[in-house]
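Shape is hard to put into words, and the shape of a protein is harder than most. The fold becomes a row of whole numbers, each drawn from a learned catalogue of backbone shapes. The outcome of that step, for a single protein, is printed below.
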Amino acid sequence: MSDSIPHLPALRLGRTYESLEKIEVKDHRTGAVKAVVSQVNGGIVKRDLARLAGARAALRPFTVARLQELSAVAGEHFLNGTLPLGDRGHTQTAAQYIETLSLTSGLPHVMVRRNMAKIHYALTHLGEVLNGLSRGLDFSILDRGFGEQFGTKLSFFPTCQALGLVMPSNSPAVNSLWLPAIALKTPVIIKPGKEEPWTPFRLIQAFIAAGVPAEAFGFYPTDHDGAATILNACGRALIFGDKSTTAQYAGNPAIQIHGPGWSKFLIGEDCIENWRDYVDVIAGAISDNGGRSCINASAVVVPRYAAELADALAQKLGPIQPTRPEDEAARLSGFANPKMADFIQGQIEEGLKTPGAEDVTAKYRNGPRQVVFEGGTYMRPTIVRCDSFTHPLANREFLCPYASVVTCPQSDMLSQIGYTLACSAITKDPAFIADLEAYPHIERLNIGPVSTMKISWDQPHEGNMFEFLWQRRSIERAW
């Protein structure tokens, strides 16, 4: 291995480890190797996770307040610092992180910086985040093990030895979901995404530079067996992936699933005549972050004017083309694995064979949907008008700017939309709003022309990390 190419070792709860088996992380356009990453097998993961009590003990001397302070310092290191990159003496500036992640993931620089800013905000505002997650708990109660607040005795115990994470490669900001764990005195065990080891590795180095013990972190590039061990042996875990990947864990309350979001806009009868006023916010929700987020809008549901709204969205999004990664106006992301683009292209084309749908962007695209630009593979935006939710393309989600515009009477919307991670309902109708508030399959509800991409860190849209990692118990003390 060339000394000029960084080597990312496994991080085994305070120890670095170089494996004989390694994979290469490559530039998605040229194939140039940007790093080699040691791979560990499930046996090593299982052996290490048997000593998680020591990892948790490393965090025990710190108060939650102190870990919040160190997390804020880590946020500054992550955003601006020069941090170790592997075990060969390499370092990485913030600018080098942006460039390298862009080269290997396909995200343009401007999107990487936005993802960095989200992570930085989460780390530097953990007090706000944890206050929302815990509904105002005095966290010194966690430090002492018990206490009194809200006029009652309180005690909590940890639900796990560590938080296991099987991470994706599509969007760096998903790492923000696990950041509260450290302040909540919980070690993290991470299997990074194959094409995106950079963000979790940099975050770990930022925490260590801030003064959090290295023993509290595991970084295990591993196979399916190792990933299963992480999910099942930590006590609590998060998995990211498509429905086929996550389905086997759907009934396990110890594993939090982060899969497709099927996020949507609904426009009510009272607002549909003003549909033109909402085109910009809907188009942004479809295309921001390259369409890669689970809270990107992937369906727009209207009682009428579907053809007109779809055409307006297509006019705005259809002409978007790939640009160089340094372009500040870049709107599309390349695919680290071109086979994913092939799959998406095939799924859309197959779906269009079923009557009742039209690719409205085709006439504004002036070229194919799937394109190669400077060696990278890209999917240009696609807006599909569907006659009803029975069409196979009406409730689909892809890792690119894609959305259906579906005709559905307001009275049938909630019986048709199914699970929806983020729903923006454009209506002022009190009865419809009451129905939306009572609908159990919406995780985050926005009322009015609010982007599905808008999140509030103190109102989690996918699970409550405090309640996931700590459980309340009854307590009575005589001493």
